[in-house]
Amino acid sequence: MNTDTSKAHRDALDPTGEVNLEDTAAVERAIKAILDRNYGSGYDAALLAQATGDLIRAYRGDYPGLLRCDTLYHDLRHALETGLTTARLLDGYAKSRGPDSLDRIDGEHALLAVLLALFHDIGLLRRDTEAALWGPVLIPIHEERGVEFMQDYLALTSLSPLAGLSRLIMATKLIFQMPADWTRPERKLASMVASADLLSQCADRCYLEKCRDFLFEEFCAFGLAGTADSPYPDRETLLAKTPEFFNGLFRQRLDKEFGGIHRLLQVHTGDGNPWTDAIERSVGYLQGILPDKDFARLRRHPLPFV
Is 274 inside any structural domain? Predict the structure, then answer.
């Protein structure tokens, strides 16, 4: 294996180094193994396979009514990893409670959480009547679109009685606070999905480069970046404000709004939290760059995965 191929392989691995996130079959197997271990025949394994296939087809432009994914940062890899990370949180939760716990999550609700995680950004995919749009312009409303899609999708599956819980996708919206009338089990599942969303993107080995190359472009699409009066007039400003994001909104969401449920990943692994470790490494590296603005030290060149 040459050096470039070796680096590309490492960059495609999840934070544990166990799963190639650009191998769709490997991600599906990893999710299924976790659900099989914890729920056995208590969840619809055929629906997991069907939904994963539908997700892949949707992002690749082969699903009725939807156009191929054209977002750079919010790509298929991120969708797959969010589903896998949610499954790992469910595993940590199951291990922390035991099989006879009164607040155990059953197989149907576990599968629901995984499917909502896999499809949490489906609202960014343009409908076949929206070919003139660039997907990132939908960022401000994509969670609502995702809820609508999943309500319709789940209504035709064995999880149809739970289709109304598609609203839990809204927790992935950075400015969203879970309503007081959401039940404790609903808040738990929503917190897992939203925590997985944040952790999976920020623990990426190429996170800093993806902010520079992809996220900035997506922000430009709906006016959050690229102009003198926007919060991020240039790529360097976006990177310079990244530590503030981690120390502020990121931690507030994970530790307060979502109740620190991300710590279940340490229960899942039984040996530390590779996701928060990866994030701390990235932030530390970036803080070493910022004083001299030596952004040339960001040498990775990731590609969107679809």
Answer: yes
Alpha carbons 198 and 16: distance in angstroms, whole number: 16
How open is the CA angle 216-301-277, to the nearest 5 degrees?
A: 80
- DSSP state letters, 225-293: BSSTTSSBSSHHHHHHTHHHHIIIIIHIIIIIITTTGGGHHHHHHSS--HHHHHHHHHHHHHHHHGGGT
* pLDDT, tens digit (0-9, with 9 covering 90-100), for 159-214: 999 999 999 999 999 999 999 999 999 999 999 999 999 999 999 999 999 999 99
Q: How many CB atoms lie within 10 A of CB 229?
A: 6
In a domain, 254, yes or no: yes
232 found inside a domain: yes
**CATH number of the domain that residue 177 is part of:** 1.10.1300.10
Give the ranges where 64-175 is alpha helix by DSSP (H): 76-97, 107-118, 142-154
Q: Alpha-carbon distance 208 to 202, whole Å?
A: 9
Give the range of the structural domain holding residue 158, as residue numbers without chain letter.
12-297
Residue appearing with tokens 């994030």: 279
pTM of structure: 0.96
